[in-house]
Design goal:
By secondary structure, this protein is an all-beta fold. The protein has no helices and ten strands. The protein is globular, with a radius of gyration of 13 Å.
């Protein structure tokens, strides 16, 4: 398998979702997994095999597209519609493709960061858990 294919225009927070207003530190599209760049405090794409350890740990999913310095809303917890086909009951993880999301079977040679579990074929229950394990 590979990263799930997300339709950015269809990314929506669900009822009760926890969100944060942030500033983008790169060009990011809705539905991408993001983290905080410790050198700037801005949100950038998460990459679980990045050379910089801090950039391997997911902090949320972008809810809108933004370029460096622009405002961006990030969801950190709760139900999120990703505009992708999910498998209910399947765990989804941050990918070693910058900003990507993949099923557990595709997590290899990278830091394992659980994003959440699909509650339907369209909704992911976002509950980020950094396992601190490299698989």
């Amino acid at each position: 398998m590979a990263d799930i294919s997300i339709t950015a225009a269809s990314v929506l927070p669900g009822t009760g979702a926890t969100t944060r207003d942030t500033t983008s530190g790169a060009t990011i599209t809705a539905g991408k997994v993001v983290t905080i760049d410790p050198s700037t405090g801005k949100y950038v794409l998460c990459d679980t095999d990045h050379a910089t350890a801090a950039l391997r740990i997911a902090k949320g999913i972008a809810l809108n597209g933004a370029s460096d310095g622009q405002p961006m809303k990030v969801q950190t917890e709760g139900p999120i519609t990703l505009g992708a086909v999910l498998t209910a009951g399947t765990d989804y993880w941050a990918s070693n493709s910058a900003g990507g999301i993949c099923p557990r079977a595709d997590v290899t040679a990278e830091r394992a960061v659980l994003l959440g579990t699909a509650t339907s074929t369209t909704v992911l229950n976002l509950q980020i858990q950094d396992t601190a394990v490299v698989v």
